[in-house]
Amino acid sequence: MAIERTLSIIKPDAVAKNVIGKIYQRFEDAGLKIVAAKMVWLSEKEAAAFYAVHKERPFFNDLVRFMTSGPVMVQVLEGENAIAKNRELMGATDPKKAAPGTIRADFAESIDANAVHGSDGPDTARTEIAFFFPEMAIYSR
Ligand code: IDP
């Protein structure tokens, strides 16, 4: 299986809940390595640019407001099948529909405040990683 990289964000709700470490543990237990990481407080402009694909959606303004409501933890995860593996660990977008034991089932409150973001495919992963990290800031192991 191919070694992939994916972009993960621990959203403001989960950072405020003090569960960064618990979520990191799940990545590591699943065999994903954290090869780049930083805490950032996104500006409105940055959040809108990151979620530009959703700009026509009715929830776009709420999403930008939420993503700028506090600091987020951004990381690049690397490992076999990292993109799908991370999506599996995250669970469904709506925590009420997320499988038991997933990050969203355990730590998220609602479809807006849903604890984590993860790239949904190889192209998105490349673009999203480049949005936050230059190649030289990624320490592949
Ligand atoms: P994903 O994060 O599971 O990939 P997307 O459909 O890409 O889900 O949506 C991006 C983010 O937009 C979601 O994580 C969630 O925070 C927010 N979002 C998606 N759908 C809704 C909705 O119906 N109401 C409010 N927020 C939503």
Descriptive notes:
By secondary structure, the protein is α+β, with helices and mostly antiparallel strands. It has a single domain, classed as Alpha-Beta Plaits (2-Layer Sandwich). It is 39% helix and 20% strand. The chain has seven helices and four strands. Strands 2-3-1-4 form a four-stranded antiparallel beta sheet. The longest helix has 11 residues. The site of inosine-5'-diphosphate has 10 residues, from helix 4. Pfam families: NDK. InterPro entries: NDK-like_dom, NDK-like_dom_sf, Nucleoside_diP_kinase, Nucleoside_diP_kinase_AS. Homotetramer. One of its GO terms (molecular function) is nucleoside diphosphate kinase activity.
Strand-helix topology:
Blueprint: E1 3-10, H1 12-16, H2 20-29, E2 33-40, H3 44-50, H4 60-67, E3 72-80, H5 82-90, H6 103-107, E4 116-118, H7 122-132
The structure holds inosine-5'-diphosphate.
Inosine-5'-diphosphate binds at residues 54, 59, 62-63, 93, 111-112, 114, 117, 120.
Keywords, please?
Alpha-Beta Plaits, alpha+beta, binds inosine-5'-diphosphate, 141 residues
CATH class: Alpha Beta
**What's the shape?**
globular
Q: Number of domains in the coordinates?
A: 1
Q: What spatial order of strands do you see in the largest sheet?
A: 2-3-1-4
Determine the N-to-C terminus distance.
17 Å
Look at the helices and sheets and give the structural class: alpha+beta
Largest sheet: 4 strands, antiparallel
CATH superfamily: Nucleoside diphosphate kinase-like domain
The helix/strand series, from N terminus to C terminus, equals EHHEHHEHHEH
CATH hierarchy: architecture: 2-Layer Sandwich
Number of strands: 4
Q: Determine the fraction of residues in helical runs and give it as a percent range.
A: 25-40%
Which fold name corresponds to the CATH topology? Alpha-Beta Plaits
Please identify the oligomeric state.
Answer: single chain
Task: Provide the gyration radius in Å.
Answer: 14 Å
Note the total helix count. Answer: 7
Kindly report the average pLDDT value. 97
* Parts with pLDDT < 50 across at least 5 consecutive residues: none
* Beta-strand content estimate: 15-25%
Bound molecules: inosine-5'-diphosphate
